[in-house]
Design brief:
The protein has 308 residues and is α+β, with helices and mostly antiparallel strands. The chain has helices at residues 20-33, 46-56, 69-82, 96-100, 107-116, 140-147, 150-156, 158-170, 235-240; strands at residues 8-13, 37-42, 62-67, 86-90, 118-127, 130-132, 135-139, 175-181, 184-190, 192-196, 200-201, 205-206, 218-223, 249-254, 256-261, 266-269, 272-276, 279-291, 303-304. The chain has 9 helices and 19 strands. A hairpin with a 2-residue loop joins strand 16 and strand 17 (272-276). Helix 2 (46-56) runs parallel beside helix 3, helix 6 crosses helix 8 (158-170) and helix 7 crosses helix 8.
Length: 308
Amino acid sequence: MPSNFGRRVLLLHNAKARQGEGALEPVRTRLEAGGLVVTVEPFENLPEIARDITRLHQAADAVVVCGGDGSISSSAPAIIESGLPLGIIPAGTANDLARTLSIPLDFAAAADVIVAGHIRHIDVGMVNGHAFFNVASIGLSSELAQKLDPEIKKRFGRLGYAVAALRILAGARRFRATIVEKGSRTTVRTYQIAIGNGRLYGGGNIIEETAAIDDGTLDLYSLEMRNIWKSALMARAFRTGTHGAWKEVRTARCVEFDIETRRPMPINTDGEIATATPAHFKVLPGAVRVFTPPDAVAGTRAVRLYHG
């Protein structure tokens, strides 16, 4: 790749992200020190991200998103359309996608990953045309996303999530849903249905112990216990991805799912309410190229994009 081309970076920066204000300068400094030409484009709300990429991608060779999981997922459709590789600067609360991909949480170190130029292909989950990298959920997590005050989220991070979650659990009620998989319909009474594309979600929980973000499948679980407080006994299992061993947790793996509910219910995609039931979920295998450390996943071949 000629030295005067192929090194232009469009850096999308969310100053409202929990750590966003402190991320911009160290990231830009590190990228420029690595010989990249950086154009900074701020955004204040999620719809702006895709519009900015669509508007500016022809003057860039890579897109870097500095923000949380919701911001990064919002970029996915435009990233796919542009064909450009994606760089991730984890500046959110949970940063589950960065953790899944072994991207450092230190801003300068994350920028160094982009400078190094190693990329891999990862899957993207879609629900009703909305993208997600980690997980999409109906029920408890959607209620949490709706009721968690953005200022509380920014100020208190995971502690804010924990306090809000306890309030949600105290008033939780099961809902009726129909899960359609490979033409088979199953009606359940559940507190939550979650469908994962990646591996980590919710600040370090594992969607399923063998899940990977490049396995070409989606992993579903449904919480069907009678008493939601029993989920507290399952906390360790959720951290290791072994919750499917509990009889109250239904699990499935497929490339497509449909979820129907009696009335429309909101769907949380990577921390943001994006759509509602009825919902069609599918996976787009290897749809996005992303910068990762070369040894991020054992057995995954790293490809060098930049050539100095």
